Amino acid sequence: MGSKEVGRRDFLKYGISLVGTGVLGSQLVYPLDPVYAQTEKKGKIKDPIRIGAQATLSGPFGGYGQFMKMGAQLAVDEINSSGGILGSKVEIEFRDEELKPDVAAKNARYFVDDWGADFLTGLDASSSALGVGAIMGELDRVLIVTHGATEKLTENLVYKQGIKQIFRISVPVYQDGIAAAIVAKDFPAKRWVTIGADYEYGHTAWNFFKATLKKLRPDVEFVEEAWAKFLTSDFGAHITKVMAANPDGIYSTQWAGEAVTLIKQAKLFGVFDKIQTWMTPMGAAMDVLEGLGKEYPEKAWVTCRYWFQYPDTPENKAFVARFYKRWNKYPHYVSETTYSAIYAIKAAVEKAGTLSTPEVIKALEGMTLMTPAGKRYIRPEDHQAVYQVPWGRITHNPEYPFPTLTDLKVIPAEEYFRKPPFVEA
Amino acid sequence: MRTFLFQGLVGLSEAMYLWMVAAGLSLIFGVLRVLNFAHGSLYMLGAYLTFYFFGLLGHNFWLGLVIGPVFVAGIGLLMERFFLRLVYRLEVAYQLLLTFAFVLIFNDLVKLIWGPIYQAPPMPPGLDSSLSILGQAYPLYNLFIILVGPLIALGLWFLLEKTRWGRLIVASASDREMASALGVNVPRLYTWVFMLGAWLAALGGALSIPIRPVSPGMGEIIIIEAFIVAVIGGLGSLKGAFIGAILIGLLHVYGVFYVPVFEMALAFILMAVVLILRPWGLFGTREA
Fold it and tell me: Does A269 contact B at CB distance below 8 Å?
């Protein structure tokens, strides 16, 4: 019970500071571009405007879906209660992508062909994002991915194959692999191993990590790999396998409930007494912080795709306060990315003045948005939103009912985002 | 060599959950001749109900461990009395359909009651540390599981071989009509066996909660493995289920270590080989 009161006090603290800045009631995500093509009323373009969203809604990864829904709902309610998009209400529906590309593609077809979706958003697994991305040209709606992180989505599908309907508002695997290596280069650890998520995301993140770290620190070695399929419940075999190689550092790409299970089991196998550093890119996700609680080792370095304490802007504080007020929880990164994606749709439609896909694409390309996570610039070449998210070390802070981050490492996005023409790593 | 042995120890603890599920599956098949596809769901219910009672009874893991599986045995009673009993004489396809329906119902029920998100209950106090074995830290809880597994095997052996009730079960399994003619209440015996099987699966699920995530769908993964175990060991043979579980557990761990790309396929390959060379399983009896 004590923890809850801390949260409330904290909320009050935020609330008071925000009433002062006057930002509490205003729109938190808005375009920073000076010129607007058209905003005059020409009658409603379509009512309601429908957004089909997908997330993983059940099982060990289900926490993500719940948090994504909360962010989406908050954005939709805010927009609808303040006049909608050009006077039209917004309607959103969620479907479970089940971490399966074929299910995700089927959902996307249902949304567009049967439900009448004008936009698609969400998608947790990289593989699902690729599955839906591949058919976006055919479906011809704008898709804004809010989590799935593989670089292939924007580098290959958008930049190389020209499927312009795809956008991504969340940081890609550059955060998980390249930024991780820039942080790891300052650690004494020389012998690195991975316990990896055995699918697109885990392999691509580890490859970026290895390639970048080797360049920055030629003395490091990558000595062992253990790959675990989705829904692994015992990581004992993987833990003992990598520990047999005497690592200094473990880089692990498990996320959501699997990260919780893995870290719990690694503790029991005495891993944290032996190694110097543990890195889990998606370890700062709210459901992992809540899941591990006091058991989260302070040797763990983690990040995510939006950290609720960064940046220190009125927009971000107001977002955290509003989210807390609505859900009695602090926002997960997928809450913020999906919240911002829906506002990006609003900004693009208002700029284009139409729902026509080519026009909306044109409006989004090159747009700079103010969002809770900071300024996001949507690169016209690959449709990737550029902004930075810090890495940090786990610490147990009595002010929050979950562990938070300390020793924040903020690397400017320009330093770790790959740039067109995306030559091999 | 040390790593090899240590890995074996890791595999053994994984095998024990599998054993408990496969034991019930095999026992029910051996006596009732029903392939209970919902057996993994009983494992899941065991985990959820134990977690539920753990929370309800002042966070006492041991109390939850006693009550949860007994509760699931009660669910087993209802399943057998009111549903399975109706399909004993029908084709196998009906049994599979019925038990598969239970898989779907239990999964949705769990989502409805406890939500779709995983739960991660804490370790019981006293077992939350590790021991140094072969120069490496080994979780005390895993060691506890490795001890519990054989104890259950011993208990089952005693029950079936040394008690009157057990001998009645063995008798009905080999000749239902004869047992019935000799005055054995076969339907009631079937209910008891189904409850025992359900209890075993639920106990496996209950014991898994401190270390594995509790989530909907956890039953579907283990039922496939348990089925492989039962087939390898011989459907109906408890000895086979025990040895089969250990084989699959070790195969998984050494698979991750030595042939990572291939690890998923190993269990299926072993099952295929057994089916070709000894279709009735390693310890099963050849059907006439």
Answer: yes
**pLDDT at B230 (0 to 100):** 94
Does the beta-carbon distance from B253 to A233 stay under 8 Å? no
pLDDT tops 60 at residue A29: yes
A258 in contact with chain B, both atoms CB, cutoff 8 A: yes
B112 CB neighbours in chain A (<8 A) are none
Pairing of strands B130-133, B136-139: antiparallel
* Residues, chain B: 288
Rounded CA gap, A331 and A198, in Å?
Answer: 28
Judged against a pLDDT cut of 60, whether residue A208 lies above it is answered with yes
Q: Are B205 and B45 in contact (CB under 8 A)?
A: yes
CA of A203, closest CA in chain B: separation in Å? Answer: 13
DSSP state of A384: B
Search chain B and give the residue with CA nearest A224: B257
Q: In chain A, what percentage of residues exceed pLDDT 90?
A: 84
Domains and CATH numbers, chain A: 2-171+309-386 (3.40.50.2300), 174-304+390-416 (3.40.50.2300)
Instruction: Check residue A5 and give its pLDDT.
Output: 44
Gyration radius of chain B over CA positions: 19
Pick from A280, A232, A221, A58: which is nearest to B253 by CA?
A232
Model pTM? 0.90
Distance of CA A262 to the CA centre of its chain: 21
Residue A146: the pLDDT is 98
Please check whether residue A226 touches B, CB under 8 A: yes
Chain A residues close to B208, C-beta within 8 Å = 233
pLDDT tier at A43, thresholds 50, 70, 90: low
CA dihedral A288, A292, A293, A294 (to 10 degrees): -150
Determine whether the interchain pair B111/A238 forms a contact, defined as Cβ–Cβ distance below 8 Å: no
Beta carbons of A236 and B253 less than 8 Å apart: yes
Contact A233 B118 (CB under 8 A): no
Token pair listed for B169? 């079960």
* Nearest Cα residue to A308 out of A387, A385, A404: A404
A270·B260 Cβ contact <8 A: no
Tell me the pLDDT band of A42, cut-offs 50, 70 and 90: low
What percent of chain B has a predicted confidence (pLDDT) above 90? Answer: 70
The two most distant CA atoms of chain B are separated, in Å, by 60
Contact (CB, 8 A) for A68 and A55: yes
Residue-wise pLDDT for A174-187, tens only, equals: 999 999 999 999 99
Cβ of B57 under 8 Å from any chain A Cβ? no
H or E segment at A326?
helix A314-327
Residue B91 predicted with pLDDT over 60: yes
Angle made by CA atoms A100, A106, A107, in degrees to the nearest 5: 90
